[in-house]
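Figure S7 source data.
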Amino acid sequence: MVMTRSEPDSCPGVLRLHEAADGPLARIRVPGGRLNPEQLQTLAEAARDLGDGRIELTSRGNVQLRGMRDAAALEQRLTAAGLLPSATHERVRNIIASPLSGRVGGIADVHGLVPPLDAGLRGAPRLADLPGRVLFTLDDGRGDVSGLGGDIGVHGVDGENFALLLGGADSGLRVPADAAVQLMLTAAHEFLDLREGRWRVHEIEDGPRRLADRLLLAHPGLDTTATRVETTAPQDIPIGWLTQGDDLVTLGAGVRLGSLEARVAEFVAAIERPIYLTPWRSLIITDLEEWAAEQVVRVLAPLGLIFDANSPWLQVSACAGQPGCAKSLTDVRADLAEAVETARVLPPSTPAFPRDSLLPEEVVASGRQHWSGCSRHCGRPRGPVTDVTATPTGYRIDPPES
Ligand code: SF4
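Tokens for the predicted iron/sulfur cluster complex:
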């Protein structure tokens, strides 16, 4: 769909908090989802000391802190932890990378591209004008993040070359690994030239093709191909025990409704290993010896982290709802939690039918489902998903079209 935006985008950051119904909300960009243990500890302390005690994970692998009582103290803490390296470019650092890259599976290792891409964004004064919604994706060839609706991205096609994605689809341009970051930065500049007030590449009429044409003019040596990489939203997220190529262990940990308690985050930080936030609102804890991984599961599973890929919590998501959103008709997250705990979230194979005017305790839905406090469906994941929507007459269930 082609659309024109008349207003500037209003994405929150650390220096521009969003006035949510439950208080100021800060969104902190975490390029590539990577946090070191000290940074996770800083976030946990900020959530506990200055906010509502929880770290919200977002669908872009970023984090949000709600109910921020002291914006200046937050800025100071995040800056000291290296989580706010630029005041001018903080909202444009939206970079998702395949979380398991370089450790488990994949064709290329894309984590090494994140720091130069982030530095390149921050180093170009003009790129501070990118809308906060622009998303960069770095997919190591397994197809886990290319289907997440990025604007500018690369997708590994072999160990040395990437496909360039524009507007979430393969442009047909091919670039070697050592030129990939520069090409993405050039694409960001060209997008600014083309955008005429629009926020996303796909919102520009014929945007991906026009952008590709401009890139070919700027880089005439680029390879092109008629064979396109298909991009689809992944349905399975990495959960549980994953053996790395070097025989160490990565643990994928689900987080209930993407809301991580500060004290649980502190336990994760205390493991002292690199941590990745995923765009599926989960955690990846890396580089563990087997005995250490066993201990981590033993300690963190009782605290609510999910290491069982069959858990119904992994089928469900929800918008902020009450009390965080003034538009919400109800506390959808509490209603959804009750549905999970009383076994009303059924396996995906169960037949599903539309229903409406339901009391919270009457809602029974199967498979992937997203609960919303109104019809805007904020935070709805990509791909087939059942909508459970609060309406003035009760909940409505809309299964995905088959
Ligand atoms: S879906 Fe509606 S209720 Fe939920 S966060 Fe968005 S606007 Fe608020």
